Amino acid sequence: KKKKKKKKKKKKHAIPCFIQLFFWKWFPESPKWVMQKSVPPELEQEKEKEARKILRWLRECDNVDIDICLIKEAMKNEPRPDKQPNNATSEPVTIEKEPLLESDEVLEDKRMKRIVRKAIIISITLQILQQLSGINSVFYYSSDTFDSAGLKNSLQQWVAIVAVCVANFLAVFVAVVLMDRSGRRMLLFLSLSGMVVSSILLSIGLYFKNQSHAWGYLCVVFMVFYVIFFEFGLGYLFCPIPWLIVSEITPSSHRGKIMSAASGANWISNLLIAQFANTVVDYVYYVPFAIVCGLGILFVAWYVPETKEKSDVQIQNELAK
User: Fold this and answer.
1) Domain-by-domain residue ranges, the chain?
2) Using CA atoms, how far apart are residues 81 and 144, in angstroms rounded to an integer?
3) CB burial class (10 A; 0-12, 13-18, 19+) of residue 191?
4) Residues 6+ apart with CB under 8 A from 85
5) How open is the CA angle 127-131-133, to the nearest 5 degrees?
6) For the chain, which has fewer Cβ within 10 Å, the N-terminal or C-terminal residue?
7) Are 123 and 250 in contact (CB under 8 A)?
8) Where would you find the membrane-spanning parts of this chain (predicted)?
9) 42: DSSP letter
10) CATH code for the structural domain at 114-319
11) The pTM is what?
């Protein structure tokens, strides 16, 4: 019976995938990608018209001149593999200018490498941090955790799981409001700090579970706060900052590869949590997750830039430092 239930669940999980496959034709291209396409000179205006059309649909307004200007400004600061400089120019190049031009190219190349390197480190680390914070140990094994906390009754476990899921859902709306008010870094600090405290308290509750039945109910409260703080910064739904920052800090010329690497890191970390989290919680509770979140605070403080209300050029200048 259990195997049949698992098979039914797997089939249900496939439904969103089929829905996405059905609607992919209507997904618009990235306006920046459209602007960067290599086309013949006579089609340059058509390219910009297409980008404007997409932006009007996304912004739900007719005036998208500012967006187009920002895209053009960002493109000036990024390498264009499809447009290599032509050495055969009509103007003569003096011997004195050659080393200066070469030096500028080398400096620009070094600058871009520094930006890309930092973008890769930040993108992959935040994705790993999202998973190794232990959030999926809650969603995958919450019933086992509540059982070990002393909530043996199936009704008690059901109420506890519903409380966690409702808290997870409602916290998203608070995070959406705070996103552009407090900034990405502040929300990451808040999220990670809250998860450190919540996971330590949850570990204490699980350790003293046999001394009083009240500790079982406290574990539910601590887990609710754990999930709420997760959604404030590292969360999954409407405002996942790790994914948002990846798109904001990566140069469009390298975005596809970096996002693929970050996605791979996320799923590999998710696999590790799925395989070993239950065993870890049985032996050392949520202490390892508290340590990971603590290290995450240090990483954000040292390495992650604030991207709130900043253009691509400003963000890349900050990464180039």
Assistant:
1) 24-72, 114-319
2) 53
3) buried
4) none
5) 115
6) N
7) yes
8) 119-143, 155-179, 186-208, 214-246, 283-304
9) G
10) 1.20.1250.20
11) 0.70
pLDDT tens string 221-277: 999 999 999 988 887 665 578 888 888 888 877 888 888 999 999 999 999 998 888
Question: What's the rounded Cα separation, in Å, for the pair 79 and 85?
Answer: 11
Place of tokens 């970390």: 269
167: nearest Cα among 196, 135, 192, 189: 135
CA R_g for the chain? 25
CA–CA gap between residue 112 and residue 230 (Å, rounded):
33
Tokens 């890191």 belong to residue: 265
DSSP three-state, residue 136: helix
Q: Are 199 and 134 in contact (CB under 8 A)?
A: yes
3-state SS of the chain: helix, strand, coil percent to 5? 80, 0, 20
